[in-house]
Fold:
Amino acid sequence: MQFSAMSPAPTPRAAPPRTLADESSPASVTIAEAQAAYSPSTTRYLAACTSGLPTTETVRALRDDAETWGRGQASPAHYQVHVDRARELYAGLVGVGADRVAIGSQASVMAAVLAASVPAGREVVCVDGDFTSMVFPFLQQDHRGVTVRHVPVSRLAESLTADTWLVAFSLVQSATGEIADAPAIRAAAAAVGAFTLCDTTQATGWLPVNAGDYDATICHAYKWLGAPRGAAFLTVLPRLAEVLRPVQAGWFAGDDPWASCYGPAMNLATDARRFDVSPAWPAWVGARVALEFFARLDPAAVYAHNTGLGNALCAGLTLAQRDQAIVTWADPSGVDLTRLTNAGITASGRAGRARVGFHIWNTAADVDAVLDALRA
Structure:
């Protein structure tokens, strides 16, 4: 990898507009205070795009819950409080009502609900090279004549036609960090009458997101939101919810879950809760604490911090600065990733590229560490 001497961090460009979450959850924690919420051992961890880090409060809550469980004092009602609070907090972060939010365990599980509802013979347009959780569920519908067409993310908007029923894409591409032109995609979808599904797993937590801009969004909260794996969200607007089949409905999707434990009657919730998947209880204890933490942050400040570090690294590597928290470069043989690993830096490699991600706990010292490791 060729690079230049370290350049000063460029002044971040204007952050995206603040979302509706800001009005209901005023920021009260600065970036410096937020950094103090993490274990000091998180230095040189540049892999939020692989798995986020918990705050010390999140770790404490999980330990306390394990002890509560061990004492025989945990119960479904005990966990219901955490699920309900996490749902409300996430709704506030992405600017929709809690009645528009369903909870689940994995992105692919939620995408499968939409895939099962694509009318037979219709088309879904996906991104070429997108994370497979946003692709495989739709490919599994080929037995019904559902066609999946793959196009580069930069051409997504121009590729939609009257045959397109759904356009499914990640707002931030996992392999490259590229940010999709969401306004253009939404406008193109509206022009042809297609629904939009946006995976914000690699965005929510550093890039301000308004879920109400899309017919549906999916977010697994274990990356940039620092929740345990197994806590994920689906938002769905009424226009699309009306045509979706809750194919994975269980007792937790009932209008009154505690009255839905036994058949044969099925009375599902009338809002997005009818798409709920029965929660993995301990994960939601951690998710609730993690989301309370992010609700106290200023999204614009987080965006400026993360992209400022990303731009600084790009300057040092003579790469184009694109205001991305995820920075990648060609590394087909894995030489650069090995150098980073040998220097004690936690990074990742995807699709023949070295990949680092900057989040709240990172500082300019991490940028210097990457450049020093690549010079070695």
Residues 2-25 have pLDDT under 50 and may be disordered. The beta strands are 101-104, 123-127, 147-151, 164-170, 195-199, 216-220, 232-236, 326-330, 348-350, 353-357.
